[in-house]
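Q: Please design a sequence for this.
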């Protein structure tokens, strides 16, 4: 959102939901952001600490067009997805008098869009939210589709709401300050989109993984556009995850368990990278996925620097944690698996011996405690 960044014509992906909205992808999107917010009398900008200067620039520009804009810093990363932080945000909204004609803006990674989206969903039973995702992961995934939430002692994202944004502004110039490990983490969700729906994504990454990770290159913009399109197509058909949307949870059943076991010190993308390798191997052992597609998981994820296995001793605990997954029915584990490339399906009540074997295969040779990969 740097006002000095080179501008070019933005690409727009439409989310054809009940209340349609646009995901605008480009560089230097400040004019579009101001236009999206300027009909509100009051705007609250919830931002993560590294975005303080950007938040101040946005606040000043909104003030120049007569908006009573406030910037409110939230704790970084998963520490922000917390009930006490949501309570703090509600208090601030009360103090600044934000009402149903007004707008909440999120500025930051997926933890910021999830928290601000949740606060917007609950304040006055729902106010407008505009997302400005600033990590790769938030651009391709968290800012689109209306899933909002916080973590509780019972698990990750167990408290939340479906609350779609009024608009999403993906300013790719913001990627230039994102630490490399966060870019790598975001690539896991990009790869997910490749396996579940758009294999061209995998071809682009395999052709040159370093180019894919270049925050100012053309490849990353194409990967963002394709991933956003995958997500938009899915959530446009099934906002509330009554069926199709579950495919976006590919790799997340084990991945969320790893995140919790690591007390959120692992990056989300690193954990779901392991989760995708696990379900690929499980589907292969169950005779549902061909060897080449299964092996392609670990090769493409490893080429980006993502982990493909985890602590060999952790599986009993991970199984306990997976029992709380939101996709489970009637006490049975339900996993998203592939029956082929871009052919997502479900596996219900998986054979425990196959799961143990799949986990052992991906974790072979790993050090206990996950090998210290925090990514
Ligand atoms: N709602 C959804 O559909 C959805 C989808 C995927 C992930 N998620 C959630 O998103 C979260 C992960 O998001 P994330 O990976 O973006 O993590 P994050 O929000 O924790 O951000 C990662 C780090 O990058 C920093 N950062 C953000 N933008 C920056 C910038 N431009 N320059 C420098 N530093 C910057 C942040 O301050 C943070 O330290 C998880 O909680 C996950 O559950 C939600
Ligand atoms: O949008 C979705 O639907 C997803 O599942 C996207 C996931 O990448 C994302 O991590 C999401 O937050 C997971 O949601 P949850 O319902 O499994 O908590
Ligand atoms: Zn995810």
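A: Design:
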């Amino acid at each position: 959102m740097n006002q000095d960044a080179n501008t070019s014509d933005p690409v727009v992906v439409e989310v054809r939901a009940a209340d349609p909205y646009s995901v605008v992808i480009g560089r230097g999107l400040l004019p579009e952001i101001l236009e999206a917010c300027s009909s509100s009398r009051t705007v609250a900008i919830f931002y993560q600490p590294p975005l303080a200067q950007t938040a101040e620039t946005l606040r000043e520009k909104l003030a120049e067009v007569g908006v009573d804009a406030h910037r409110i810093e939230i704790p970084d990363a998963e520490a922000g997805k917390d009930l006490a932080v949501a309570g703090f945000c509600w208090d601030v909204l009360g103090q600044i008098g934000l009402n149903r004609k007004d707008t909440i803006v999120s500025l930051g990674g997926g933890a910021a869009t999830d928290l601000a989206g949740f606060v917007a969903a609950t304040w006055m039973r729902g106010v407008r939210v505009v997302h400005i995702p600033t990590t790769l992961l938030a651009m391709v995934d968290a800012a689109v589709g209306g899933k909002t939430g916080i973590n509780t002692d019972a698990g990750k994202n167990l408290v939340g709401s479906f609350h779609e944004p009024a608009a999403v502004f993906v300013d790719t110039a913001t990627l230039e300050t994102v630490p490399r490990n966060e870019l790598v983490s975001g690539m896991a969700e990009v790869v997910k989109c490749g396996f579940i729906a758009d294999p061209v994504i995998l071809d682009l990454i395999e052709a040159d993984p370093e180019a894919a990770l270049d925050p100012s290159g053309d490849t990353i913009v194409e990967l963002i556009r394709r991933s956003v399109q995958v997500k938009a197509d899915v959530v446009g058909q099934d906002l509330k995850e009554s069926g199709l949307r579950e495919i976006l949870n590919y790799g997340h059943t084990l991945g969320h368990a790893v995140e919790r076991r690591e007390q959120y010190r692992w990056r989300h993308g690193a954990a779901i990278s392991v989760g995708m390798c696990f379900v690929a191997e499980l589907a292969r052992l169950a005779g549902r996925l061909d060897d080449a597609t299964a092996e392609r998981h670990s090769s493409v994820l490893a080429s980006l620097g993502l982990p493909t296995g985890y602590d060999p001793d952790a599986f009993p605990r991970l199984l306990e944690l997976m029992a709380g997954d939101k996709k489970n029915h009637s006490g049975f584990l339900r996993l998203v698996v592939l029956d082929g490339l871009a052919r997502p399906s479900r596996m219900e009540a998986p054979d425990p011996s196959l799961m143990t074997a799949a986990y052992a295969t991906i974790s072979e040779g790993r050090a206990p405690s996950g090998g210290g990969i925090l990514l």
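Q: Thanks. Anything notable?
A: Residues 53 and 59 are 10 Å apart (CA to CA). The chain has two domains: 11-177, 180-363.
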